[in-house]
Amino acid sequence: MDVVFRILSDFRFRLINRSRLWKGQQSGTGIVLVLIVIGSIGFHIFSPWWWTPIASNWSVIDDMISVTFWITGFVFAAVILFMAYCVFGFRRGKRRLAAYQSENNKLELWLTGLTSLSAAALLAPGLMVWFKFVTVPEGTDEVEVFAQQWSWSYRLPEKDGKLGTADNRLISYDNPLGITSGDPNGQDDVVIKADDLHLALGRQVKMLLRSVDVLHDYCVSEFRANLDMVSGMSPYFWLEPTRIGTFDILCADLCGTGHGALRGMVMIDPEDDYQTWLFE
């Protein structure tokens, strides 16, 4: 009997110690969850990494990113704090028993409704901005951006203000951009075989994007505007430069071994300087 009593006493002692250890671990987990929320919010507010100063009319894109941050940040904080509450509020105790509930239709309806509203709050404003992004105002200038491994080229209209048609199947040594020879609008197009581009300050411009080979992405961070360039397709966007300066052009899609070399510069000039460059 003494042996049995000692075994039972030892088992009870270990059980009590494990229970205390488990409670301590629960408290530590809850504190860590709260600290994660506080640290995440603090990093977002005081982070040294933020957007580059904008140089186009698309400040609304920054606004949409901020809205997305706030909505997803609120949901993140609410979920993590709820987890911390559950860890503290429903921790193991002598008089606390676990209760199993198979379903709760009211709770499921609330969760479904809140999730749907959150998704709509994220998608609806973005779709409105996208509509503006691809709806080109009348009288907008056109610039064709031509990407290939691993260089940029450009085509601009001259006095008629119209670009001629082009087709990748027409590309040859004598016709590197595949311009349709029979199109009268393309006879006076200005072809720039260089990685650098000039744009006029305050003049709206439609960027026509073409790729001759693989997937590229014409990206100028300060413009907040870029799109994938797929061979055989002609995506586009428009923008209005709002700040004089020189900005880096990058390819935002991995396009092969020379991807890092696919760079360039875009210069935003006053109107007089732009005209001088265009006709020099």
Short description:
It contains 4 helices and 10 strands; from the N terminus they run αααββββββββββα. The protein is α+β, with helices and mostly antiparallel strands.
- The computed structural class is alpha+beta
What is Rg? Answer: 30 Å
| Annotation field: number of helices | 4
Helical fraction: 40-55%
Q: Major sheet: order of its strands?
A: 3-2-1-5-8
Characterization of this structure:
The protein has 280 residues and is an alpha+beta fold. The chain has two domains: 2-91 and 105-134, no CATH class; 141-278, Cupredoxins -  blue copper proteins (Immunoglobulin-like, Sandwich). Helix content is 41%, strand content 20%. The protein contains four helices and ten strands; from the N terminus they run H-H-H-E-E-E-E-E-E-E-E-E-E-H. Strands 3-2-1-5-8 form a five-stranded mixed β-sheet, with no helix packed on it. Strand 1 (141-148) and strand 2 (151-156) form a beta hairpin. The longest helix has 45 residues, at 2-46. The model is unreliable at 3-19 (pLDDT under 50).
